[in-house]
Each structure stands twice: as C-alpha cells, then as structure tokens.
Hints:
Layout: E1 2-6, H1 13-17, E2 25-28, H2 39-49, E3 52-53, H3 57-64, H4 73-86, H5 91-99, E4 103-108, E5 111-116, H6 132-139, E6 146-148, E7 156-160, E8 163-167, E9 181-187, E10 190-196, H7 200-208, H8 214-226
Amino acid sequence: MRILVVSDLHANPPALAAVREPFDVCLCLGDLVEYGPDPGPCLAWVRSTCAVTVRGNHDHGAAQEVDVQGLTGFRYLTMASRRATAGRLSDADRRFLADLPTSHMMTLGGKKFLLVHASPRDPLDEYVGADPAAWAARLGDLKVDYLLVGHTHLQFTLQVGSTTVVNPGSVGLQRDGDPRARYAVIEDGRVELKQVAYDVERTVAAVADSPLDPPAKQLLAEVYRVGRYVPLAPGLNGHVNGAVNGHVKAEAGAATG
C-alpha cells in the first residue's frame, strides 16, 4: 500500500499541483487555509482526494473567526490572511473546516495510524520538533505504529520505541530556507520525505492580486521565494524586526503553525 501524506497546504494551489505522486490512500494533517491567497482549490482537492483529513489550528481559526493580533512575523501574516480568507470561504467551506476531527485513529495495511495536526497532547497548537524524547513523552502509553503530525512546517521522521513519527513538512509555505513543496510517502514500511519545486511566481502573482494589505503581500512574496520569513525594511507600516526567521521557536504556538 502506497500512502501519500500531506499537511499545511495553506491555500497555495500551485504548490499542491506540483505533488503528483501515485497513491492508494491520501491522508491530510490539516491547515488547508490561510497565508496563501486561494483556499477554494485546496479545499476542493482535499474533499475529493483525501481519505482522512484532520483539523489544523488555521482551519479552526478561520472557521470560528478567531481574532488574532500581531505586528510581526507569522502572527501578523495570520492576522492579515485571516481577514482576507474570511471573504473567500463559503458557509459550506466553514462547516467543512469546523467539522474536521482534531485527531483520527485508523488501520491501514495492518498498521495502526494516529493522525493529528500538532501533537496527541494538544492536537491543534503544540509545537514539537524532531526531538525523540519530547515525542516519547507525548506518546505515553499510546500503542500506534505511526504517528503522523504537521504544524511545524519542518520535515522529519523519528523512531520512538515501536512508533514511527512522521512529519511530512508543509506543501504550501516553507520555513527552513528551501521554497520547495514538501510531503511524505509511506510504502511497505518505508518512509520517504519528498520535496518538489513549483511555480512560486504564480503564487506570488496571486498574492499580489489578493485583498491582503501591501506589507503582508510583500512579506508573503519573500517567504514563497526564499522559503523563510524575512522582515521588511524599516519604515514599511511598522511591520519590521522581531521573529526574524519563521522556523525559530518564537514562532511556535497557536496562529503561527
């Protein structure tokens, strides 16, 4: 069985279109919306393609219209894109996002899988990197063969006791300096972490045509092009400095993953 695992699509259809893997089952770990300019095609793809999708913090925030305030970094981009996303979601889209489960247990090919966006302890918001001890504490007595997580936008796979922890990285928005889309394939017990180039300038053009504020447009264009958060030059509407790189710990937590 060939399992395609995707996460953190973030309303970026060109990045999603570059993921052209054959698969028997597709699993999605949430954050379908926000940051990117075009949630509709990503939502349609997930509805038609994914056997299971769990809810991410951005899905929850967009569906529930959670207020976010931020002057810099990904918190500012969350605030800006949440306002823009609100006008591009139908009532059916909001219901779909709100109804997504926060976790899902399933068996595939005789193996038990647990799917969450962030962690078993805090499915929406907890930020846990590639730390075996941290995952051992969060797995506790859970008996699963695979724990599939997203949220950090950083690819990794770890063996923690009898459990393989897999983070496929983000399809739609990168934080480690490599702008390529990320995903994972699990086949016959082997996990392959994959990266694929996509038409970044097509996404940048869509951002330019979106209702986002000009500082958010410029910030997002740089994130897409260089694969990490780069602060604007001083003087552009005050959205400068702080949270210098989107992948550092300061950017962890609700509304940033």
